[in-house]
Known about the structure:
Layout: E1 2-10, H1 21-36, H2 54-60, E2 68-71, E3 79-86, H3 93-107, E4 120-123, E5 126-127, E6 129-130, E7 133-134, E8 142-143, E9 153-161, E10 164-165, E11 168-169, H4 177-191, E12 206-215, E13 218-221, E14 226-229, E15 232-240, H5 244-256, E16 269-273
Antiparallel strand pairs: 1-3, 1-4, 1-8, 2-3, 4-5, 6-7, 9-15, 9-16, 10-11, 12-15, 13-14
Helix pairs in contact: 1-2, 1-3, 4-5
Amino acid sequence: MKHTKISILLRAKTKPPYFIGSQIRGAFGYALKKVTCINPSYKCEGCFAATNCLYYHFYEQSNRAHTYRFDFELGKDFYDFSLYLFDKSCQRLPYIVSALHMMLTQNGLGKERQTYKEFELYINDKSCFIKNELKIPQDQIKTFQIDKVCQDIRLKFTTPLRIKKNNRFVRDSSIELRDIINSIYQRQMQILDRDFKKFPYPIEAEIISKDLKYKELTRQSNRQKTTMNLGGIMGEIQIKNLNEESFNVLKLGELIGVGKSTVFGLGKIEVEEIR
């Protein structure tokens, strides 16, 4: 899996919302459309350039996996977030960085449209905004790899995880390891534009404990004029004797996210070795 990580650190005077996912995705989309749109009508429906339009692929195209996701922690006192790009989206990095820069310096964040001149911007953890100049490094695309395999892990859900089981979102500890692994694997297939197929390896593990709870979360949709529920499972699961194939998929899930609404920053997991 090819990927690029863009990170922004911004210490604003105004404390950001507890959940910044809706705000930054909306602001980024507004800027991205300004950067990429070449249609005089400024409308996506029936646009002659839709098939090659980055904004269309990121925001308007339906029935297709998104090749990006936002990443952050809930409830921070300042803006500290990343935007991960996957597969072919990595090649559009200059447009995406330009949109993020426009979002912060021209369009602004929040209802007050607060703009910022001072912030830190990194690409793959390398500083790229120096003396108000953007510089994109040559090694902008990374390849996912695993350095160490662990059998005993703590699987942490740090933003709400939204996974459907029997056509309903799981709201309790009934979620199983195979649900999580299958979700990650199918997301990987969709990002790589491959046909659906089941996870080809056995899932071997011993669940030691579950400490999970449902976290309520909502967002206001300006387009649909409604409040949307983004609640999901948070907490952790302790696992022992995990087989290598299952561990590898969970590590991939750290990168690409798990479940629904990963573009908003949901489904963020961490795999931590139990020593």
